[in-house]
Amino acid sequence: MLNQKLVSAINDQIQYEIYSALTYKAMQAYFEAEDLPGMANWMDVQFQEEMAHAEKMFQFVCETGGRVQLQQIDAPRNEYASPLEAFEVSLEHEQSVTARINNLMDLAQQEKDHAAQIFLQWFITEQIEEEASVNLIIAKLKRVKEDGRGLMMIDQELASRTFTPIAAAE
Length: 170
Ligand code: FEO
Fold this sequence. Notes:
The chain has helices at 4-33, 37-63, 83-110, 114-144, 148-158, 166-169. It is mainly alpha-helical. The protein has a single domain, classed as Ferritin (Up-down Bundle), CATH 1.20.1260. Helix 1 (4-33) packs antiparallel against helix 3 (83-110) and helix 3 packs antiparallel against helix 4. The longest helix is centred in the last third of the chain and has 31 residues, at 114-144. Bound molecules: MU-OXO-diiron (FEO).
């Protein structure tokens, strides 16, 4: 049986993962409107990943005898000044997720909940990859600045990203 403090904290994180998904779906809409289909695709994959994170936490709470309780989710931001700004906001968002996952791990350690610690380890590793991939895109966008051809090349590169379901990836 999952510790009640952890049930409550993971419930909060399920909400935040769904909020993350909405944030990326809104970014996809921004890139669709900007005629940057590759970046829109990248955001759509990100949306699917966030929903998969929420689902993984949802299943863990259910499997460990906890009760998932969903609340209202905040509206995402819809407008961005540039592709670079959207990716910078994305990085800030991922940094906030990392801090939240680290707090969850701290709580699991305080409560001596070993199952939760093993479960959260996957998310700690995932966050390293999440931040690194956004950092790389930001570096490329900064390098091309206002160069339209460079932007199109990055867009083409991001068009190849595909979603890999978590179970198949493990
Ligand atoms: Fe679910 Fe991007 O962290």
